[in-house]
Design goal:
15 helices; TM_effector; transport; about 0% strand; single chain; transmembrane helix
């Protein structure tokens, strides 16, 4: 099986090339901001707060954005969001260059970036189906798209850690600004044919949101996965916001140690994405979600217990591998099971559960870590991760039981109740 078969489609290939370059800059900027916040404040809470501010728009706006995106050109929306993100990166670079940098400015610019990203992520996810001509290759395209993201997450922090320790934050921010140039170029070379969705003049975004929510209520197989995504984003996935403190406080590390943890997380996620690219049609994605959630919880417990840097890095790889498997399985299931007319709206709920709830989790976990300490907080998060997996297993068993007994066998003619 060709795990790179989606790259045969020109539009998806251009999308992948542009994203792979831009995401390197994005991760360089992300690691620089995280380290800068921790350097300015020496506070785990502020790490979580800045993450909350930058990702909170996905929580508050994503459902409305999904309704907005349905019925509009996803391609044009992606072009606009990339231009706006490039401008935001330029302003951030300028603020650091003139030495105005402060937690206040990082919060303001992070919020602006979060609003733009909320539109970009929903639009890009909904656009993905138009970049692959044969819809049988859509799961492979989703997995490869995740592979690009996580390859950048592995390489970007490694490069960013070197540049950060050698040249400082300004270089990281400026390179991110430049990285949007290839994205805009590859977008300009695409020839995308989108299926037009007509909307009546009386159809408001609020009505679209309500309609999407009603569809979600009628689809418990999708709704249950979004709930799992939300629970993980609230209690487990925010471990990533603690990595600067894990590197500095638990292992007496510096910028490069932090970049090793980020790269380890990227490596694990990339392995998970490649594994998803090898996915065969017909596999039970919901059970894959359950096992991934269990592995994620157990790996977090082992990360909390780790006494040596090398073992901590290996357990970080395992956590991110499981996280990638869970998130990509949920994404693939929704993309392949949602009705096309509702896809953007349902994906907006997925984005809300993933990127929207994550900042609240970061804020909560940051506050808990201030009180309990990093190690005990990781133990708590790992235990909750295991409970989430067990809870979803119970739900799946009950769901199968209901399906088996929903249509009882017909009684024989001689036996009437």
């Amino acid at each position: 099986m060709d795990i790179f078969r989606s790259l045969h489609y020109p539009n998806f290939r251009l999308h992948t090339i542009g994203q792979s370059i831009s995401l390197l800059g994005t991760w360089m900027q992300r690691i620089a901001i995280s380290w800068l916040v921790y350097k300015l404040t020496d506070s785990v809470f502020w790490l979580g707060f800045v993450s909350f501010v930058s990702l909170s728009p996905s929580l508050f706006f994503s459902p409305f954005i999904g309704s907005f995106v349905d019925g509009r050109s996803k391609y044009k929306l992606v072009v606009v969001t990339q231009i706006l993100l490039m401008i935001q990166a330029a302003v951030l670079t300028l603020v650091v260059y003139v030495d105005w940098v402060s937690v206040y400015w990082l919060c303001v610019l992070g919020f602006v970036q979060g609003v733009i990203n909320a539109f970009d992520v929903v639009s890009r996810q909904a656009l993905l189906v138009s970049l692959v001509d044969n819809k049988k290759d859509l799961p492979n395209a989703i997995a490869l798209n995740s592979s690009v993201f996580n390859a950048a997450r592995m390489v970007g922090p490694a490069i960013g850690g070197f540049l950060l320790s050698t040249y400082g934050e300004l270089v990281c921010f400026f390179i991110n600004f430049l990285s949007f140039i290839p994205v805009l170029f590859t977008l300009s070379q695409m020839k995308v044919n989108e299926i037009k969705v007509t909307k009546s003049k009386q159809f408001s975004n609020w009505e679209g949101l309500k309609d999407g929510f009603d569809y979600l209520k009628r689809s418990p197989h999708i709704a249950s996965l979004i709930i799992i995504m939300g629970c993980s984003s609230l209690f487990v996935i925010p471990y990533t916001s603690l990595l600067p403190a894990v590197a500095k406080d638990l292992f007496n590390g510096d910028e490069r140690t932090f970049s090793w943890f980020e790269s380890a997380a990227g490596l694990g996620a990339m392995i998970g994405a490649i594994n998803m690219a090898r996915l065969k049609s017909g596999e039970n994605l919901r059970y894959r979600v359950m096992f991934s959630a269990l592995i994620m919880g157990i790996s977090l417990l082992l990360l909390a217990y780790a006494h040596y840097l090398i073992s901590a890095l290996l357990f970080t790889v395992a956590v991110s591998f499981a996280m990638m498997m869970q998130n990509s399985s949920i994404n693939t299931y929704i993309q392949t099971h949602a009705v096309p007319a509702y896809r953007a709206r349902i994906m907006s709920y997925y984005v809300m559960a993933f990127q929207g709830i994550f900042p609240i989790g970061s804020l909560i976990i940051g506050a808990v870590a201030e009180g309990l300490g990093i190690k005990h907080t990781l133990y708590l998060m790992g235990a909750i991760g295991v409970l989430i997996a067990l809870g979803f297993y119970t739900y799946l068993r009950q769901h199968i039981h209901r399906r088996l007994f929903k249509f009882p066998l017909p009684l024989s003619r001689g036996h009437r109740s």
